[in-house]
Amino acid sequence: MIRIFSKRHLPSLGSRFPLVAPIRIVSLFLSFFLLNPLLLRGEGVFDHSKWGHLLKQYVHHGLVDYKGLLQTKGELDDYLKQINSVSIEEFSEFSREERIAFWINLYNASVIHMILDEYPIESFDQIPASFEIRTIQAIGEFFSLSELRDQVLRKGFRDERILMALVSGRMDSPKLLPEAFQGNKLEEQLNLVARNFVEDETKNRIKPKEKKISLSPLFRNFASDFVLNFGSFNPPSRFSQTETAVISFVLHHLNNPEKRIFLDSSRYKIQYLPENPKLNQA
Predict the structure, then answer these.
(1) Can you give the pTM of this predicted structure?
(2) Own/partner pairs for 136-139, CB < 8 Å, 24+ apart?
């Protein structure tokens, strides 16, 4: 039987040092944060309304109207310039929640911007080295998508729900919210995207009557991220530690009673849906 073992309420390194940047500026940022008393005060507020306006207008059921968005690409350019204008000093005044919202919005907006630069394309994977080239500017530094996702967000904050907030321009990625993430409502938004992703039958197929479970490849590719908050001291013998953590996470955000009872029984083999690199176009 799977038992949920959530440790999110415990303090973590990410809660104190939520920014993990490329290696050459780590020491600069850490020394700045440790010496700056504003770090704990959370006084900074960034206006994401430009990005929110575009999302509301061009995101439908989690998919993106790239053709329509291409006509107003200048507004997206303005938003990214606004992001780039934030200094390290200003960023240090952001609360932890505001920082997470800042990085998530920057990541998603950058993915959309890269697609628009190459549009029309059939897959985000057609963009050469899309995750590795440092073309994203913020707080006086250049980042790649991989660095934003893996170093800044995943390692910097240690909150597995963030994975459900990030889009990759693919049909198998989480669906894009039609609103910008905001620091003052981040907890609500992260819970929403986690629940939406878990309950989306195009992403996760849980069939109690057939005794089958097919999860998103996201849970396979980032399985270790779920251990911190949803790991178990005594996982069922048929599941690994990471598989147990993933199932505990799914149980935590799943509302369907029949599916919950089935998952809690552990009487199934975990399978994964095939990847779908097709563009997430409305």
Answers:
(1) 0.86
(2) 136/106, 136/110, 137/80, 137/83, 137/84, 138/83, 138/84, 138/86, 138/106, 139/86, 139/87, 139/88, 139/91
